[in-house]
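Encode chain A's predicted structure.
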Amino acid sequence: MTALAATALTLLIVDDDPMMRLGLTTALAHQDDFTIVGEAADGEQGIHQAQTLQPAVVLMDVGMPGTDGIEATQIIKQRSPDIRVVMLTSHTHETEVIAALSSGADAYCIKGTDVAALANAIRVAAAGAAYLDPQIAQTVVQHLAPIRPKTSPETVGLLSDRELEVLELIVEGHSNTAIGEKLYLSPNTVKTYVKGIMNKLVVNDRVQAAVAAVRRGLVE
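Encoded structure for chain A:
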């Protein structure tokens, strides 16, 4: 086994459309750092294969008969929190997007996005960061805007200027490495800021931090 193969990200593809599975497998197989370890045609199969194969990342379709992608993601994350889930959807309808955000998935992409963007989302999720497709992020902002309260001085005061800069980049979907490069900070320093932000906002992950930031009006 080569060093490249030993460090490749293992992927499980879950989609009820065989042509979509074929297309994803064909496209992602050309990425040197990806290895497709399995496919599943529905949510139940996806849950079983995730438990059996323990892939690094699951590409999960939202709309499937029976156990849909949202329920399957919740079960997978409950049983194997370290497995990262990239949710794939063909719709940006508000109800579906908000439901997907609550499922515990780590990244959210629109079906048909170009391969480079999808591969980037997979790598970002695998690295422990969160990724929101720009169209989905726009839907979230539109959903939260009517209920977003005005930012109070106390809320803003929770976070330092540097933490607000880091938070804005989290909302934009940047990984810790990218944040460090943009702000000229070391990876460990970025991790410290991210942890501090999550503690102050009382959230458990980066997606929740991004949603909380928009809801509270902490970022534009």
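Residues 1-6, 146-156 have pLDDT under 50 and may be disordered.
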